[in-house]
């Protein structure tokens, strides 16, 4: 078994080298040389993790205070006292909600408050405000709204995809049933709108609301295209831009607006979020096949089982032989075995599909980081540090992918 896995890994390494030599253009090679930020020593990676862990902890504290205040009746003038004694702003419409939050609504809020998650989207919002010279506190309400929006969309995702696990725990539909889960998702969407409105900036409300609509449109298009055999990469990127990248885009753009950024800075951060969001979805597609369930919190090959035409599957279907294509097509709606997963992984390796998807995600990450570099020169150390942290968000997304791919295919990444 070990020798077979080693042979697959060696063969894959050869394929990687051949694909790079044949397909990568000179200009792409030059860009890779000019952007070495994807190559880190382990000590540097630990620093990256530590820096962003601090941002996650900061947001988690603010998020917990925001959710706790929903059932709190002990409000100071203008807000509730947070864990550090400071006054936390409270939307008027949520004060004194203690009697309203019972049963599954209360349990669901506790679940998303304590359920982990990387909190990437709200962190992007907060850091984008600082990156243009603003105050992160001015972006907190919108960051909370965006995290609530994200969690609402995850619940609806789990219903559509029949997911029973989310972040290594039973999903909301698995815990409460689909009908109640729909109610919880709608509740979180509504709660998100209330925190969003509390920011008081119409253009920010417009940008985030646009992302909500685009997320739903992307989900709908993706669901309908599961029945189609004609999906191509153009339609894939259309769905990804709507379903996933729109919220990344809105997070960065809203933060830049709230931070008082000029038009050029707002557009650069908007483009940063869009490109990062597309790269992030491609990485998720790869991890659906090669990830560690202990890390991702969900079983492997759910996308193939659900009939989603990811960029890996489309590439594999173009390059696989007839027997392999028939096998991949047969997995839709099927209970996938461990042997099926191994065969899917082997096909994706041998046909170069995982390397193809990995390279495309890198290109979008390079584009995202270029937009950060094209921001006007930072005027303060706080701006410089916020931009560095935004770059670390992109870098760490690559690291999480490389780490799990290396474990899955023998260290080729």
How does this structure look, described?
The protein is an all-alpha fold. It has a single domain, classed as Farnesyl Diphosphate Synthase. It is built from 18 helices and 5 strands. Strands 1-2-3 form a 3-stranded antiparallel beta sheet, with no helix packed on it. Strand 2 and strand 3 form a beta hairpin. Helix 11 runs antiparallel to helix 17.
CATH domain fold name? Farnesyl Diphosphate Synthase
Gap between N and C termini: 21 Å
Low-confidence stretches: 1-9, 11-41, 73-88
Report on the biggest sheet.
3 strands, antiparallel
pLDDT averaged over residues: 83
Large-scale geometry: globular
Number of strands: 5
- CATH architecture tag: Orthogonal Bundle
- Strands of the largest sheet, in order across it? 1-2-3
In helices, the fraction of residues equals over 70%
Which secondary-structure class do the elements indicate?
A: mainly alpha
CATH class: Mainly Alpha
Count of separate structural domains: 1
CATH superfamily: Farnesyl Diphosphate Synthase
Write the element-wise H/E pattern from the N-terminal end onward.
HHHEEEHHHEEHHHHHHHHHHHH
Strand content is under 5%
Gyration radius, to the nearest Å?
Answer: 22 Å
Continuous helix count? 18
């Amino acid at each position: 078994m070990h020798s077979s896995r080693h042979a697959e890994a060696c063969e894959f390494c050869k394929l990687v080298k051949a694909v790079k030599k044949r397909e990568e253009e000179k200009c792409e090679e030059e860009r890779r040389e000019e952007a070495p930020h994807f190559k880190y020593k382990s000590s540097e990676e630990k620093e990256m993790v530590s820096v962003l862990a601090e941002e996650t902890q900061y947001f988690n504290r603010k998020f917990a205070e925001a959710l706790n205040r929903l059932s709190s009746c002990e409000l100071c003038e203008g807000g509730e006292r947070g864990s550090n004694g400071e006054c936390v702003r409270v939307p008027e419409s949520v004060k004194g909600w203690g009697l309203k939050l019972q049963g599954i609504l209360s349990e669901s809020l506790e679940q998303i408050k304590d359920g982990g998650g990387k909190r990437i989207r709200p962190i992007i919002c907060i850091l984008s405000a600082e990156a243009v010279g603003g105050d992160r506190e001015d972006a907190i309400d919108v960051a909370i709204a965006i995290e609530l929006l994200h969690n609402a969309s995850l619940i609806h995702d789990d219903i559509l995809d029949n997911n029973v696990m989310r972040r290594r725990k039973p999903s909301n539909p698995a815990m409460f049933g689909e009908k109640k889960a729909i109610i919880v998702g709608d509740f979180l969407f509504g709660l998100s709108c209330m925190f969003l409105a509390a920011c008081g900036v119409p253009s920010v409300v417009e940008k985030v609301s646009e992302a909500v609509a685009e997320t739903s449109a992307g989900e709908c298009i993706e669901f309908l295209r599961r029945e189609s055999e004609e999906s191509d990469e153009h339609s894939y990127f259309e769905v990804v831009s709507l379903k996933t990248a729109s919220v990344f885009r809105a997070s960065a753009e809203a933060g830049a607006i709230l931070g008082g950024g000029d038009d050029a800075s707002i557009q650069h951060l908007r483009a940063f979020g869009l490109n990062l969001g597309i790269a992030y979805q491609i990485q998720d597609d790869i991890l659906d096949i090669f990830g560690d369930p202990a890390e991702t919190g969900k079983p492997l090959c759910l996308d193939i089982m659900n009939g989603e035409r990811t960029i890996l599957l489309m590439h594999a279907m173009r390059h696989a032989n007839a027997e392999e294509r028939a096998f991949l097509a047969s997995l839709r709606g099927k209970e996938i075995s461990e042997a099926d997963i191994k065969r899917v992984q082997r096909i994706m390796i041998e046909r170069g599909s995982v390397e193809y998807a990995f390279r495309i995600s890198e290109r979008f990450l390079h584009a995202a980081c270029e937009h950060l570099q094209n921001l006007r020169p930072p005027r303060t150390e706080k701006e410089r540090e916020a931009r560095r942290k935004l770059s670390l968000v992109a870098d760490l997304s690559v690291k999480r992918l490389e780490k799990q791919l290396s474990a899955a295919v023998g260290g080729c990444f």
